[in-house]
Amino acid sequence: MDNRYAVILAAGQGTRMKSKLYKVLHPVGGKPMVQHVVDEVSKLELSKIVAIVGHGAEKVQDQLGESVQYAVQGEQLGTAHAVMQAAAHLEDQEGTTIVICGDTPLITAETMASLLSHHSEMKAKGTILTAKAEDPAGYGRVVRNAEGHVEKIVEHKDSNAEELLIKEINTGTYCFDNRALFDALKKVSNDNSQGEFYLPDVIEILKTNNEIVSAFQTASFEETLGVNDRVALAQAEQYMKKRVNAFHMKNGVSIIDPENTYISSDAEIGRDTVIYPGTIISGNTVIGEDSIIGPHTEVKDCTVGDRTTIRQSVAHDSEIGHDVNIGPFAHIRPASSISDEVKIGNFVEIKKSSMGKASKASHLSYIGDAEVGADVNLGCGSITVNYDGKNKFLTKIEDGAFIGCNSNLIAPVTVGQGAYVAAGSTITDDVPGKALSIARARQVNKDGYVK
User: Please, are residues 288 and 273 in contact by the beta-carbon 8 Å criterion?
Assistant: First the structure.
């Protein structure tokens, strides 16, 4: 196999998005468009990936990190000009280069691999990824000769009546012999109404040199969708949602209402888990088997075990074990660790805390900056008072402790193993193991007071 390279075009400002956010960083399926492209192209056996950046270069580099090399297009003078910026990385290399736009988040590694294979089999100098569009209006038409080689690409506005009937369109993704590409780029002219250097002109130059130019038609038009405005962004979101949900359902996950369920393309979900409507599973979330998520639940960057239920709740950046029951209306904030068989009930907030096996906070509690042991019962209204206005402090509740309703634990404080805290207490000192701590005023009844 010859050397293979990729050039990702990610320098356009995207003015039609009408956004302060750089176009290729707009998310689809919870992940920036350009990240989708890089993740897919990285599945191929490539020697080098070069991202062409311009507007917002620093933010794109922050997103992609060291997964690619970079070339900067200082002025946006067209797609051919953009690819030419990769010359310092690729110009002298032998092999094949695939050129992809950073605003095509739905393209898959499988399609790109098929494009590369077709290019090699045809011994072509250039190959265009095409698709069949039921409504090809606005797209460049791909005109083939009798042998199936590309005769030319005709823009919609320049097509004659016969060419307008062609439904095979240019998707903007190409495959080139690398040396032929950079030789042809030097010959591209900007003698056009926009005064820009266009990559499709490379195809015409190769044809003029009697080189073989081929086309590979993908079966999925939606996969080639380029996002230039918010309307197309919403279309891409719908396509991605449909693809991801179908993947999980085919792998044994029950999604009750796929139209109203949103799952990240990076999420992993085990068999026989049920996802109810209104659920958003985002980031690198991993959910085990036989769990129930939703309805109306948000889980982001969490690890969730088997047989766990999370209903009408929010969980972010946390670890949640097996056989856990959360919700309704609970909030698991970042850096929390929920062990097996824990119950987190309605209107309970857990923040940067650990809950040991089989512990319970059934309702109306705040547990922040705490280490809670196993088999602990936190009564209704239990609060770890962790903040003094300047610093956060740790509360420790050891195994088997019982915290009565409406108790305040003023951190830093430790409640020992098997200890009891009486309801309504405000605890400011450590409670020894097996002790009962009562920290409240004595009850006084004043007879006849109301009269």
Answer: yes
What are the residue ranges of helices labelled H in 175-325? 178-185, 200-208, 230-250
Residue numbers of the domain that contains 86: 4-224
Task: Respond yes or no: is residue 363 known to be catalytic.
Answer: yes
Q: What does the pLDDT look like over 39-54, one tens digit per residue? A: 999 999 899 999 999 9
Confidence band of 1 (pLDDT split at 50, 70, 90): low
Entry pTM: 0.90
- Among the listed residues 36, 119, 316, 363, the single catalytic one is 363
| E strand intervals along 283-412 | 286-287, 292-293, 298-300, 303-304, 309-310, 314-316, 319-320, 325-326, 331-332, 337-338, 343-351, 354-355, 360-368, 370-372, 377-378, 383-385, 395-397, 402-403, 408-410
Q: Which pLDDT does position 311 carry in this prediction?
A: 98
The verdict on residue 90 lying in a domain is yes
Residue 372's pLDDT is what?
Answer: 98
Structural domains in the chain (count): 2
In a domain, 235, yes or no: no
The pLDDT, as a whole number, for residue 146 is 81
